[in-house]
Structures are given as structure tokens and as C-alpha cells.
Amino acid sequence: MKTKQDWYALKDTLSLSGQALIDGERVDAQSGKTFPVIDPAREVVLVEAAEGDQADIDRAVAAAKRAFEEGSWSQAAPSHRKKVLLKLTALIGEHRDEFALIDSLDMGKPIAEMIGVDMSESLDCWQWTAESIDKIYGEISPTHGDTLGLISHEPVGVVGAITPWNYPFMMMTWKIAPALAAGNSVVLKPSERAPLSAIRLAELALEAGVPKGVFNVVPGYGHTAGKALALHEDVRVLTFTGSTRVAGQLMQYAGQSNLKRVLTEAGGKSPMLVFDDCADLDAAAQRAAFSIFMNQGEMCIACSRLYVQDSIKEAFLEKLVALAKTYQPGDPLDPETKMGAVVDRAHFETVNASVAGAEQEGLRCIHGGTTQHKSGEGYYVAATIFDEVPAEASVMRNEIFGPVLAVCGFKDEAEVIALANDTPCGLGASVWTRDLNRAHRVARKIESGMVWVNGWGGGDPTLPFGGVKASGNGRDRSLHSVLEYTNMKSIWMSLEV
Ligand code: NAD
Asked: Is 267 in the pocket of ligand 1 (CB under 6 A)?
């Protein structure tokens, strides 16, 4: 593992590009406009990025469509696409530290987390997805003997992807890898708050042999470039990770345009349930702290609501507060840092306002609290825990997307299931018990796309990732995600018998 000095030395050699990559060429926005990309830990401008809008999206979608119709990728043998994507995986591996550094500078995540989580899980996903593509078979349906019914999976055409800033490399990986593997062309609009790793990835894809026009990246704002992509008549699938509010807008844009399929991975307010028969309270406390404080709490699956059975609550909170003290915000480029800077000034103010609001409501803060910002020293917020939080309190109901935990006790299983489901969201849930029957019962009754029993998180590419309710409808990772970027076609052949 590199030292802090090594990372700073690498930073000095980085050459960052903020240009769009369209049809195999690095280009400025047609308007000539740019926007600044800020390093939130140092409050400096890293680079000016091209501010793409409707004109650039039109150009990128036209290039993607032309490349799809020309067929060198869409109609290539799956084994060929596998080879190219495995080469890309190898190149990403060679550039692992560069990508880790770019995202860390772009959005403030600790470098150790970038290496140990984001890059490691992203590499697994690229490799697994690349290897999967020549193993997907069609089907023959059980029709009458005078017909042959074939069911095949075909690439859809142009896929539009819109991604968030909290896991820039990993979130785009979960979308771009399956969309390309299935033979589609892609236009990606990364978050304006962290667009740089996407641009670099598109360059490496060209180097690996992905043909020009098949993977395009247009940086820009959501309400201009993102909206243009979502409304585009030639985009057949729109894949999105971000807030529930924007997910809803994208579904409207699909309705206003061509009824494109919209795959959404949206916000979360996930619960962790710790029963008094939990076999390992230390492990549960460790995962509870990690879940809400890693990545500064800027995580969709953070368990931001913690329910602990009354009889063990005091002992559990003692452990949790001791662990929270180890999450001191610090320089993201120091490998010892466990919590970095939040993405920008606006987000710093949002998180701080949520904490201040809870304090004004009179909620019991047992660790952390509001933070003062010192100009020029980065946007850091404190790991914060509120106890005895009622169900209707804002910190219990709304996604804060910061290191802020709301805790509440419970008496029994029925009560905690009702509390856990009392949210519009349904992304993940973590359940701690040594009773296997209870584990199954609770896992079935919780309304969420994912449940972790005696654990939390885990980045295996074989398991689908996604939510229900207002947390969205899409599934990233696994063969299910590859199939989301295909159309199912039925071919009916009449036979002479
Ligand atoms: P966001 O919704 O503000 O932005 C996400 C993307 O949408 C950005 O690229 C943005 O430019 C774009 N966008 C914004 N308005 C748009 C519009 N009108 N039309 C088209 N595009 C538009 O979300 P964010 O702040 O970047 O990310 C944080 C959110 O993402 C949180 O709610 C978090 O829970 C969620 N998230 C979910 C998952 C998941 O898998 N469910 C994973 C990571 C993050």
C-alpha cells in the first residue's frame, strides 16, 4: 500500500482531462462552455470540464447509433466482446491507483476505501461481466410440433446512462460493463460533481479495442445534458443511479418521449435491526458504524436507521460510540483516514442543516453534532449519532446522505418490522439474530431489494443490487443486470411436418 507521500507524489504527476469523449475523440462542448471540478478536501479547482448540453448529447447519441447500426460491436461474436472487455479489465487493473486517486480527489473519499472497496469490487464486476457474455443462451419454447419457437436476447441499441457522484467509478461500472457486454452502444452523462474517472475510462475503452462511438462520455449538468439524454428519441434504455426525485423526473421524460425503458437505482433509508439474541454484538456494532460512517455516509445502502432491542441497547450504544470516535474526518489521501470530505460546499451545508435541525427538535445527540467549516480547509462533517429518535423525526424519515445515524429501541419482532417498513424507501436491510427461523421470517417481511443477515454490504458481482418502492426498479450486477440491457425477441417458425 502506498504512503500518503506516495499518493501526493502521484497526484503531482496526474494529467486530468475534462473534455467530453464522443465518437472516439476528445472534444470540448460545442458551446465552448466549461464548469469547474472541485477537490472538496482542498477546495481547489482540479480542472475545467466541458459543459455538454443538448447539442453534445445529440452528437454523442448519433455516434452511438451509427456505431450500433454499423455492427462491429453489436453484431460481433460474444467471445470477441469478452476478449475486448477482459483487456479493458486488465487495463483498469494497471491504472487502478490512477482511478482511485481521481475519484478521491474528485469527491473526497478516503484513498484506502477507493482501493479496498471501489476499485476492488469494480474490477471484480468488469471481469465477471466480461466473462458472462458468451454464456447466455436463448431458449426454445414448448410449442406444438409444427412450429419452432425461439426466444432470444438482443442488444437494445443506444443505452443512456446517468450516474451519481458518491461512487463515481463503481456506479458507472455497474451500468457500462453489462450494457457493453450485451452489445449496446452507450452515452454516459456522469455527475457534474465527479465526472473525471468516466472520461478516463472511455479513453481506456478505446485502447482496449471498443470501437469508436460505442462508448461516449458527455460531462454536464443534469437539467441540461441529463435531461436531453433522457428525452432523446434514439435512446432505448435509460439507466440511472441517483436520487428518488430525479428518478421520478426521468420516468416522466420517458413518458414524454419514446417510452424508453428506465432502470432506476434511487435513494435509501435502510434499517439495521439488532435483536437481543445477536451472537456477536461487537461485530454488529462494527458493521453498524462502518455502514453509516464509511464514505462519509454518502452511501445509498447506509443503514441510517438503527433499531436495537431494549434489553441490549445501552451496552450496544456504548460499543457504537467507542467505534464512532475512530471515524475522525481527515485528509482523504492519508491511507489511515477512515472518513474523508463530503462532496462539496452545498452538500456540507445540507448535512449540517439536518444535524442542526435535529438538535433544534431536541433530539438526544450522543456523539458528534454540527461542524464549523474553516475556509480553504475542506468540507468535513462529524460522525453523528442521535438516540431515542421518534419515527416521525426528519433524521429518521429523510435520506441525509451524510454520517448521521438515528437510533431507536424496540420491544419485539412485530414492532421492529413495522418500524423498519415505515419508509417510502426499500433498498437494503440488515438483521442481526442467532435464530435462523427469525432471520428467515424477518428477511421475508422486510420490504427491500436486499437483506443482509448477520452482516451488511458485500460486493459480490453474482448478487443483484437494487431496491423496491421509492428506491427504484433496476438491478445492477449479476446476469440479471446484463439481461436488463437486452430485448427479448420471440421468433415463430412454421415447420413442414
Ligand atoms: P442526483 O439525483 O442529484 O443526480 C444523479 C445524476 O442525475 C447526476 O448525474 C445528475 O446530473 C443527474 N440529473 C439531475 N437532474 C437531472 C434531470 N432533471 N434530468 C436528467 N439527469 C439529471 O443524485 P446524486 O446527488 O448524484 O447522488 C446521490 C443519490 O444517489 C442518493 O439519493 C443516493 O441514495 C442515490 N444512490 C443510489 C444508489 C442505488 O444503487 N440505489 C447508489 C448510489 C447512490
From this structure: yes
Cβ(276)–Cβ(252) below 8 Å: no
Atom of ligand 1 nearest to the CA of 467: 41
Q: Which residue has the cell 452523462?
A: 189
**Is residue 57 in contact with ligand 1, taking CB distance under 6 Å?**
no
Q: What does the pLDDT profile of the chain (497 residues) look like in tens digits?
A: 899 999 999 999 999 999 999 999 999 999 999 999 999 999 999 999 999 999 999 999 999 999 999 999 999 999 999 999 999 999 999 999 999 999 999 999 999 999 999 999 999 999 999 999 999 999 999 999 999 999 999 999 999 999 999 999 999 999 999 999 999 999 999 999 999 999 999 999 999 999 999 999 999 999 999 999 999 999 999 999 999 999 999 999 999 999 999 999 999 999 999 999 999 999 999 999 999 999 999 999 999 999 999 999 999 999 999 999 999 999 999 999 999 999 999 999 999 999 999 999 999 999 999 999 999 999 999 999 999 999 999 999 999 999 999 999 999 999 999 999 999 999 999 999 999 999 999 999 999 999 999 999 978 999 999 999 999 999 999 999 999 999 999 999 999 88
For ligand 1, atom 8, name the residue with the nearest CA: 191
d(CA 344, CA 328): 18
Cβ of residue 22 lying under 6 Å from some atom of ligand 1: no
Residue 265 known to be catalytic = yes
CA of 10 to the centre of ligand 1 (A): 30
Cell numbers placing 445: 417481511
5 Rama sector, left if φ>0, alpha if ψ -120 to 50, beta otherwise: alpha
CB-ligand 1 contact for 243 (6 Å cutoff): yes
Full set of structural domains in the chain with CATH? 4-266+472-490 (3.40.605.10), 271-461 (3.40.309.10)
Task: Find out whether the beta carbon of 450 lies less than 6 Å from any atom of ligand 1.
Answer: no
Residue in the block written with cell 413442414: 496
477: helix, strand or coil: coil
Nearest residue CA, atom 40 of ligand 1?
265
Residue type at position 116 = G
Q: Are 128 and 481 in contact (CB under 8 A)?
A: no
* Atom nearest to 253 CA in ligand 1: 19
Atom 19 in ligand 1: residue holding the nearest Cα: 227
- Show the cell assigned to 208: 482496449
- Interacting residues of 144 by C-beta distance below 8 A, sequence separation 6+: none
pTM to 2 decimals? 0.98
